Amino acid sequence: MESLPTFQDGNILIVDDDAGILTSAQLFLKQYYKKVYVELNPGKIQSQFKKHEVSIVLLDMNFQKGKNDGEDGFKYLQQILDTQPQTQVIFMTAYGDIDMAVKALKNGAIDFVTKPWKNEKFLTTVETANKLAQNLRQLEELKNSRQYQSEEQAREIEGFIGGATSFFKAKATMEKVAASEANVLLLGENGTGKGLAAKFIHQNSDRNERPMITIDMGALSETLIDSELFGHEKGAFTDASQQKKGRLELAHRGTLFLDEIGNLSLPAQAKLLSVLQNKRFSRLGSNNEINIDVRLICATNIPLYDMVEQGRFRQDLLYRINTVEVMMPNLTDRISDIPLLVTYYLSAFKNKYGKHNLSISEEEFEKLKRMNWPGNIRELQHATERAVILSETDQLLASDFQNTRASEKQMSEPTSLNLKKVEISYIEKAMALHEGNITHAAKELGIDRLALHRRLEKYGLQ
To answer: How far apart are CA 389 and CA 352, in angstroms?
Structure first.
């Protein structure tokens, strides 16, 4: 037999009421596996599951003197499969009965070993079970990976587009940082695309074949954060009816995206910092430490530096998560991208709602550029979908995109009556509307190019 590599990955639990059998099996298997646990009392199998992560159980079939029908074993097999369905169970018995072996396999066991065993056959059986356990674990992880993304998620990444200078600079920074292992902090208003930016970084990283796991910290109550991050064992608290892997564990070797991290409480911040420093944690209800390797991306619309000064956010945690900061521009800073974004969304929604002849003219695009979009790109996307749904002709108008939040700017009057402030306000709006193009901004303001140049110098707006 070809020799096996020493210390394979795999956690084994041996359950037998014969202490000699336990000692013999443990000493033999410990030559090949680091973690081999033993248990004399089958009633404590579930306790072992709470203390250890187990992938293989070697289970005796008979625990009562004088009985050799295997009923005890089948009872405990069912309990194991009910609570730990991914666990591979190998039956052990001193009675080699082929009918019992067939029944064991039909009831969910992976194999059958007779006692006393031959070491070579014993080891091969355990190795086969371990490979199956590893394959099942990898399959579970793959279900969260890029390979299982929906078409909608794929379209979202394709929609991470823009030509405005502010967006181009932010995207260029993301492309550079994606190839590294640096933690990234995404800043910006709600609706500016921080979630898409996180996906873009992940998919352009070396971790793109592994999962990107997202947690919206703003949507979790204080009592749920620990369970979501770290997971829990069955019975760890009142409603913990079964074991649950936390998001940290699911993100192993991939990316963990913590959205709205500014909402994290100080106690939760301390726990997260500890995990980032030590790269390990324990599920709730367990003392067994789990090592992790994750790339962290965080996002917030809250000024974290102000929160640090107010004592509401840990400075040491901020320094851990902001190796690279990227500011996502709001739609006001990328007005020239509105036609491009609307065209992209319009194409998607025309197909979704079967309205393939819809179009919008350049004149209407110009009107859209003059509308207020306080909800940024997200609002623009929703407004486009609403316009498609409610359209009654093949030609969309800017007015079809309007709602209570979006309305024609038409250089709305500033609140101040100070002439200097009024003039600065109009100049800033015109420059933003035309992406810094002085000729077009001057035309918008009704003055010549040189006059606008003089005002820009006068007010220090260049």
So the answer is: 10
Residue 60, strand partner residues: 92
Tokens found for residue 199: 């996906």
Per-residue pLDDT tens over the stretch 105-137: 888 888 888 888 889 989 999 998 888 888 777
| In contact, 402 and 413? CB cutoff 8 Å | no
Please give the torsion angle defined by the CA atoms of residues 273, 276, 281 and 283, in that order, rounded to the nearest 10 degrees: 70
Cα–Cα dist 397/394, whole Å: 10
Question: What is the C-alpha radius of gyration for the chain, rounded to an integer number of angstroms?
Answer: 31
Q: Cβ contacts of residue 191 below 8 Å, gap of 6+? A: 331, 375, 376, 377, 378, 379
Tokens of 214: 């997202």
CA atoms in the 13 A half-sphere facing the CB of 72: 18
Q: Which amino acid is at 201?
A: I
Type and span of the H or E element at 319: helix 315-321
Q: How far is the CA of 238 from the CAs of 44, 232, 234, 242, in angstroms?
A: 20, 11, 9, 11
Q: What is the pTM of this model?
A: 0.61
Residue 302's Cβ-side half-sphere holds a number of Cα atoms within 13 Å equal to: 17
> Do residues 456 and 427 touch, judged by C-beta distance below 8 A?
yes
Closest CA to 178 of 201, 144, 151: 201
pLDDT digits (tens, 9 = 90+) for 206-254: 998 888 899 988 777 777 888 888 888 888 887 777 888 888 989 999 9
Q: To 10 degrees, what angle do helices 438-445 and 419-433 make?
A: 130
Nearest to 38, CA basis, from 92, 97, 85 = 92
Q: How confident is the model over 22-62, as pLDDT tens digits? A: 999 999 999 998 889 999 999 999 889 888 889 999 998 88
**Interatomic CA distance for residues 183 and 323, integer angstroms:** 5
Structure tokens belonging to residue 399: 């007015």
- Start-to-end C-alpha separation, the chain: 78
- C-alpha to C-alpha distance for 104 and 73, rounded to whole angstroms: 9
- Please state, in angstroms and rounded to a whole number, the distance separating the CA atoms of residues 6 and 31: 7
pLDDT at 404: 41
Question: Which residues share a beta bridge with 292?
Answer: none
